[in-house]
Amino acid sequence: MDIASRPSQPEDTQVADAAPPPQTPAVIRREDYQPPAWLVPEIALDFALGLDATRVVAKLSVQRNPAGNGTSTLRLNGDQIVPVAVAVDGEAVNDWRLDGDDLLVELSGDAHEITVETALNPAANSQLMGLYASNGMLCTQCEAEGFRRITFFPDRPDVLSTYSVRMSGDKATFPILLANGNCTASGEGEDGMHWAEWHDPWPKPSYLFALVAGDLIANHTTFQTMGGRTVDLNVWVRPGDEGRTDHALESLVNSLKWDEETFGREYDLDLFNIVAVSDFNMGAMENKGLNVFNTRYVLADPDTATDGDYDAVEGVIGHEYFHNWSGNRVTCRDWFQLSLKEGFTVLRDQLFSADMGSEAVKRIEDVRILRSAQFPEDSGPLAHPIRPDSYQEISNFYTATVYNKGAEVIRMMRTMAGAERFRKGTDLYFERHDGEAATCEDFVKAIEDGAGLDLTQFRLWYSQAGTPQVRVEQVQNGTETVLTLTQAVPATPGQPEKQPMPIPLRVALFDRATGTHSGEQLIVLTKAEDSFAFAGFKTAPVVSINRGYSAPVAIEMDRDPADLVFLAAHDDDSFARYEAMQSLVVRHLVAAVDGALSDEAREAGQQAIGQAFAAVLADEALDDLMRGELMILPSVAYLAEQILVSDPSAIHAEREALKAWLGRTCAEALAAMHDRASAVPYSREAAARGARKVKTQALVYLAAGQPQQTAARAMAQYRAADNMTDRQGALMVLAGLDAPEREEALADFYARYADNALVVDKWFSLQAGSLHPRVLDHVRELAKHPAFTMGNPNRVRALYMALAVNPGAFHDASGEGYRTIGDLIRRLDPVNPQTAARFVPALGRWRRIEPVRAALMREELEKIVAQAGLSRDVFEQASKSLG
Ligand code: TRP
Ligand code: ZN
Question: Whole-model pTM above 0.90?
Answer without folding.
Answer: yes
